[in-house]
Design goal:
This protein is mainly beta. It is built from two helices and twelve strands. It is globular.
Length: 159
Amino acid sequence: MTGIRRLDEVSIFNGKLSFLIPHEWIEAESGDSEAYLYQAPDGHSGWLRVSLITTKGVPDPGERIMKLFSDFENVTRDEITGNLTHRSEKDTVEDGDRLHIYYWFVGGVVLPDIAYEAVFSYTVLADNATETTTKSEIQVLDQLVSKARFHAVDGNRPS
């Protein structure tokens, strides 16, 4: 059987965000205390970076997320989680390297008063953006990030 991958759940930001990643991926040092970084062990396919914006004490968190995503085109809603997702991509140059970056902005709520926005970015060398491996990883990430789960946290325990 082809196309079947083993996935592992990661829980980050003290339990506020959980999502699935390919089993073989490893967490890497990001050098940024407000972001997490993951990659395939061979480091060939790219780097997944995840950051989280939390707004607590919102009277209507669903309305806040809708307003936040109203500026985006092509927003989708996950039927299971209710998350809103917008994907975009861009080319850039960093330290002389041409890069292609895919972005997923994922908004979700935890009632009664928390609005979350997770920003997932997947960075590859621009020359690798059209490779079959990269396209396959993007298809997997498209499916996984929209299903991210947000949690209210009391101490270190999701509630």
